[in-house]
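User: Design a sequence. Structure:
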């Protein structure tokens, strides 16, 4: 009886030591700075992802509604719209859709650059072709009845220009009629469609996702218990043997 009483403190001390050795740190607890870095990285992913999605969705929305966005690059139509604005175009298929006072986008004769000016006159002019005898001369095109073939033409002028455009433009070279103006959209759309804009919207979120993945892998390895750790049941079994 006396011997069992003397061994009791030793057994209790061993139990306390085993509990201390088997106590693990609280799972899921991370330093405040690590939580802050994670929040910043996810913010970059969300913001850049939304910006890139918007740059694709806005032009697509107008295309679905049979419209087009055109970036204004000059100030010939000021103050109606200026360089850096964006105009919404609707395609026309019939001369009756054109009226004096409308703003249209067209390719001038002999040019492949779009111009957006106001219609000041509408005319029906004879269609011309090169003379077969003298190619340097232009002659009217005749139909089967011998009548001149006439096509609709527009005469245009920029609101900020003192004079009209030098040449009349056939209807076939008109791209569309301006329906609306969005101030400042042009520079944003132009930047978003450039290589630099795409890099700014795509590279940071990709790097952020890679950093988050690395942080997750490193954190999982730190929380993993050592391979040589032993369960606490061995200590309890040894204590039970001593009590017996």
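Assistant: Done.
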């Amino acid at each position: 009886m006396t011997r069992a009483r003397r061994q009791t403190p030793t057994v209790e001390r061993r139990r306390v030591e085993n509990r201390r050795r088997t106590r693990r740190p609280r799972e899921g607890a991370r330093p405040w700075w690590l939580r802050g870095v994670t929040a910043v990285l996810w913010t970059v992913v969300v913001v850049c992802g939304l910006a890139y999605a918007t740059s694709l969705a806005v032009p697509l929305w107008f295309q679905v509604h049979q419209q087009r966005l055109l970036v204004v690059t000059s100030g010939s139509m000021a103050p109606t719209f200026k360089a850096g604005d964006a105009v919404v175009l609707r395609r026309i298929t019939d001369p009756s859709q054109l009226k004096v006072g409308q703003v249209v986008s067209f390719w001038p004769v002999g040019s492949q650059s779009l111009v957006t000016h106001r219609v000041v006159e509408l005319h029906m002019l004879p269609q011309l072709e090169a003379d077969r005898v003298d190619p340097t001369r232009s002659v009217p095109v005749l139909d089967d009845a011998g009548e001149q073939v006439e096509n609709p033409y527009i005469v245009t002028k920029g609101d900020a220009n003192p004079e009209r455009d030098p040449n009349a433009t056939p209807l076939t070279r008109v791209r569309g009629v301006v329906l609306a103006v969005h101030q400042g959209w042009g520079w944003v759309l132009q930047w978003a469609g450039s290589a630099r804009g795409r890099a700014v919207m795509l590279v940071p979120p990709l790097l952020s996702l890679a950093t988050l993945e690395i942080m997750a892998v490193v954190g999982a390895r730190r929380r993993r218990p050592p391979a040589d750790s032993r369960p606490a049941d061995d200590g309890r079994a040894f204590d039970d043997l001593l009590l017996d």
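Residues 36-65+194-224 form one domain. The chain has two domains: 36-65+194-224, 69-183.
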